[in-house]
Amino acid sequence: MGNPEIAKLGYVALVTPDLEKSLHFFKEVIGLEETTIIDGVHYLRAWGDFQHHTLSIEKGDSGHVKFVGWRTKNREDVEGFKKLLEQDGIPVASFEAGTTPGIGEAIRFKLPSGHTFELYYDVERPKAEEGRKSVLKNQTYKSWSKGVSPRRIDHVNIHTSTDAGITYEFLEQLGFNMREYLRDDNGDIIAGWMSVTQLVHDLAVAQKPTLPTPARIHHISYWSDDSQDILRAADILREHDIDFIGPGKHGISQALYLYVMDPGSGFRVELFTGGYLIFEPDWEPVEWTMEERAFGNTYWGDTVQDKELNNITIEAK
Amino acid sequence: MGNPEIAKLGYVALVTPDLEKSLHFFKEVIGLEETTIIDGVHYLRAWGDFQHHTLSIEKGDSGHVKFVGWRTKNREDVEGFKKLLEQDGIPVASFEAGTTPGIGEAIRFKLPSGHTFELYYDVERPKAEEGRKSVLKNQTYKSWSKGVSPRRIDHVNIHTSTDAGITYEFLEQLGFNMREYLRDDNGDIIAGWMSVTQLVHDLAVAQKPTLPTPARIHHISYWSDDSQDILRAADILREHDIDFIGPGKHGISQALYLYVMDPGSGFRVELFTGGYLIFEPDWEPVEWTMEERAFGNTYWGDTVQDKELNNITIEAK
Amino acid sequence: MGNPEIAKLGYVALVTPDLEKSLHFFKEVIGLEETTIIDGVHYLRAWGDFQHHTLSIEKGDSGHVKFVGWRTKNREDVEGFKKLLEQDGIPVASFEAGTTPGIGEAIRFKLPSGHTFELYYDVERPKAEEGRKSVLKNQTYKSWSKGVSPRRIDHVNIHTSTDAGITYEFLEQLGFNMREYLRDDNGDIIAGWMSVTQLVHDLAVAQKPTLPTPARIHHISYWSDDSQDILRAADILREHDIDFIGPGKHGISQALYLYVMDPGSGFRVELFTGGYLIFEPDWEPVEWTMEERAFGNTYWGDTVQDKELNNITIEAK
Amino acid sequence: MGNPEIAKLGYVALVTPDLEKSLHFFKEVIGLEETTIIDGVHYLRAWGDFQHHTLSIEKGDSGHVKFVGWRTKNREDVEGFKKLLEQDGIPVASFEAGTTPGIGEAIRFKLPSGHTFELYYDVERPKAEEGRKSVLKNQTYKSWSKGVSPRRIDHVNIHTSTDAGITYEFLEQLGFNMREYLRDDNGDIIAGWMSVTQLVHDLAVAQKPTLPTPARIHHISYWSDDSQDILRAADILREHDIDFIGPGKHGISQALYLYVMDPGSGFRVELFTGGYLIFEPDWEPVEWTMEERAFGNTYWGDTVQDKELNNITIEAK
Q1: ipTM of this model?
Q2: Is the pLDDT at D47 greater than 60, yes or no?
Q3: Mean pLDDT, chain D, as a whole number?
Q4: What are phi and psi of C291, to 5 degrees?
Q5: What's A102's DSSP letter?
Q6: Are B128 and B136 in contact (CB under 8 A)?
Q7: Higher local confidence (pLDDT), C316 or D7
Q8: First and final C-alpha spacing in chain A
Q9: What structural domains and CATH numbers belong to chain C?
């Protein structure tokens, strides 16, 4: 048997001090669909997401992310990863199927950066009910029902005050491929865009020494099909009196973006489109120097650098 | 060692009776860039393609496609596939590196449908020269230099007068995954959308019993980032007095399309955007029945079904 | 004092046998806002319309349009037009302010084609209430609240079984300028695109000898800002299981279109963007011959010609 | 006879110290078409402009604008304006037809702000030659031939160090309607968006007390049909290594913008789409206060306020 493999980003488990505000933001402004509510936890997904949920939201004392869930390629990969991690002395917690509704047997462990990742294989794919179900057989919900209406989850971006190099190495052992990175003047990589899929990144990790707690989450991203959808999102956010950064286009990843914060939890969402796919098996990671950093961050448009909204992150447990 | 694997669609080797017309069409109207010309063969790629070429064009007696090239995941996969194919009694021809400029050691063989496929691993990635090179480090050429200006090659669509079921099975052995298919009233699959990547299809195969020669190529597709690019393409084609079908949106694959024929060779190009990606490792192929066929072909817009332009295909060798 | 002048298209008074269906279509699918309901009549406008309503809908025995209202440039123009029309022997009915809610003193009369036009000057411009009001001072409602969400009314298109030439002449006396027209092989103009504004047309009139009643309305059109909005509209209509024609681009007017029918009344709506503006004071009307007709109707895309959906019109009183 | 009237913005006469750079910028990057070159002056227009030229470019010692030309509604209006202006003691210079190629008899005079305006009626409309001519009968050139490829001229924006109130009053006497304006805390209007057409503005005038010379030109604007065209323009400018501000959306006028400077002359171009049209004959100008100024300038996106690129203007003679 080969190495266990991760197939894709699964979901983010968000805790918010203001559940009502967060639900209004994610359901009415962003326009995610609610699969179900169980024990006060709301399970949401975009109209084009194919699994049970890509975001769970529950009430808690502070805005933070409990963990980020990833789906493995095979059922036995969950056990396979458990063994590998424990061989390396990493504590691994196991969870029975259904601990998270819609998610099968799972393990959780911490990255060197302190972020908790979950791995699972089995997942429920509940059909949408009549009235919300798409007329297309290959699509979960009707598109364009409400708000921004992105198609699917895209990636997560995490920050760490620890030495990010250790986390990049760890992630590469889990099967993440470095696709683009920023190298500082000391020769250290301080931001990396990594993926297990053919996206440029499913996961970005940035080193930020001055964070108030070691492990933070910068944003989750949902993907829309067209650039015009991002401009329409800007109108929608303004009409809801919600501030944001963008639109702008990243040099790194080439994607068009808008950054907006959930007013309930402080968790940031990147509305995202464009970019490129990587099909080459021998992809050479693209290096950006500190001199090229501004260009890599903002190819054009409203910049993400050094803006207050951009510098706030929420804690990751 | 595991099974050999195919990473991605590489290129299509096109022969045209009217080289000048075909070059004008692909370079000025579609807007592909020319990597090089060697021995009268023109090697073209889109501005976002990462390899030596994705289309070669040479002069010949009739418009046809010599073969479709695919890149393997590893260097040893080329030899691996050779062994597997020969074990199954399939004749395999081997080619030295450089037989096709920019392409390493390669093998060629015929599908049961009669279409020739090439497999190779090594590929040159010549940088674009100053003036044509993008200011972005992760992009080959400047975008939007001329014509439609699509980003990258997307897929090929082939037709066969043979029993397509045999070819689907053969392709699945090569590692192609069935993503969506059309089942006729006898229970046979007569059109299949298959991929080795996370695209819905790198390759579509349709059974057309009445073709004039057994193996035909319906189209090659180039991908643009935005729906608006496809509408702009329609304007550009009209201004060049070139007829086309579309715009329309497929139900199958959910992509926005335009079909246009190279006036030199009769080879059809699909200009394409939208659609969805498949990250689920246990994707259940989406079945469309004959009753659902029209909807699957044309979710909305100018239909691809039963139009003359659509029914013409060129021979595949 | 100079000639009385018409400033702009005002509103269409629609009667529907199925009020519930029509309201669902115009409010939820098209996404018009409801200004008010008075005596069972619903007054609707788009988020960017600046007057009381641009469409009124009431219940009646059959789907038809009672009249089309136009706003004059000056208050005294209403009386001015009354005099001119009566001098020509045209019966004119006068209505007190408020006969139609939001509309001041008005006159109504019939075109030679049999269509009833209303002229008025005074109009109420009720502000949108909090929650629906735009954050922009120059916009009535929040955009993108629901459905297709077009910006504003654009034009009406009427059909007549009478000699259209008489109606073109009559309309020119009212101040409509011919902008583009279709001339048949006998030398008669059988379709004319006319405007009092700088749009290519506020009003199109086509001669259709075989209509079941002499005066018909082909469609009302609402305008969106971007081509992508029309493609999104196509998705929305499909998700509501509503059939339509398009997208396509007219040669005449250069506009991108989608034609869809209100399932309640049978009244057609054209969703519309693009096109050009005419600022030249000495514009030469653009002539299209029968040979050029198909191209003029459909520059590209799903054609409006000879389709069943397109040939149905509702009666105009 | 009524008052003389202005129909539309005609053209801007630009002088550049680096003709080659300016021509490359306007012809290859922006993508204007060249009607003709006479006596070293290049006459340019966009593919959808209907007159001889909308921009003339000639070589001179410094980057500046000689005058802004406006077309009147009637031939006799040129003489009519001459009389009115001279009655008010304004010096008026008369020019024979053909003084500017393609332009008939003209007069020139200075606004109180010091900017020179030209008024003319007659204009040549040379057809585009085969190869550049559109296949559409209602369009001058093929669209999308090169560069950004906007449709038509839209407006000019001028700055003055004098009391702008005097100029607003003067312009209102010429027939310009105030559509939106910015009022400062002293109650003075310090920026006004005015039009003779149904656009929100053909002309914006801002009071800037600290200008190096009294009469400056901030920008000329060309209009594109779709928001996506502006995003594509941003890519094109970056690939040409040309800096710009935007994309952003104005609150005032609601238009999507990009500001870019001609590297030859320092003259700024606004690439522009969206916005609204004013058909109401009794439009109440929209007032913006200093508190609302930032929102009015930048509804969202990369801001035009206080940026260096934005503060540079070229002299108007």
Answers
A1: 0.96
A2: yes
A3: 96
A4: -65, -30
A5: T
A6: no
A7: D7
A8: 33
A9: 6-120 (3.10.180.10), 152-316 (3.10.180.10)
D25: buried, middle or exposed (CB in 10 Å: 19+, 13-18, 0-12)? buried
- Find the helix packing angle between D227-239 and C227-239, rounded to 10°: 130
Minimal Cα–Cα distance from A61 to chain B, Å? 34
**Nearest Cα to Cα of residue B154 among B201, B191, B205:** B201
Mean of all residue pLDDT scores within chain A: 96
Q: How confident is the model at residue C1 (pLDDT cuts 50, 70, 90)?
A: very low
Tens-digit pLDDT profile for residues A153-171: 999 999 999 999 999 999 9
Tens of pLDDT, residue by residue over A217-232, are 999 999 999 999 999 9
Distance, in Å, from the CA atom of C66 to the CA atom of C108, rounded to the nearest integer, reads 11
Inter-chain touch C279–D251, beta carbons under 8 Å: no
* Burial annotation B268-302 (CB, 10 A radius, 16+ → b, else e): bbbbbbbbbbbbbbebeebebeeeebebbbbbbbb
Q: Measure CB to CB from residue B144 to each of D143, D236, D241 and give the nearest one.
A: D236
Residues of A within an 8 Å Cβ radius of D? 226-228, 231, 234-235, 237-238, 244, 246-249, 256, 299-303
pLDDT at C307 over 80: no
Q: Do B135 and D228 touch (CB under 8 A)?
A: no
C chain contacts of residue D2, beta-carbon cutoff 8 Å: 2
- Taking one residue from A and the other from C, the number of pairs with CB-CB distance under 8 angstroms is 31
- Torsion of the alpha carbons at D83, D87, D91 and D94, rounded to the nearest 10: 10
Chain B residues at the A interface, defined by Cβ less than 8 Å, are 2, 7-9, 48, 50-51, 71-74, 136-139, 151-152, 180, 197-199, 225-228, 251-254, 273-274, 276-277, 279-281, 286-288, 292, 296, 299
- Interface with chain A: mutation pick from C235, C236, C273, highest number of A CBs within 10 Å: C235
CB under 8 Å to C235, separation ≥6 — which residues?
A: A143, A144, B249, B300
Q: How confident is the model at residue B309 (pLDDT cuts 50, 70, 90)?
A: low
Which residues in chain A land under pLDDT 50?
1
Looking at residue A309, its pLDDT comes to 57
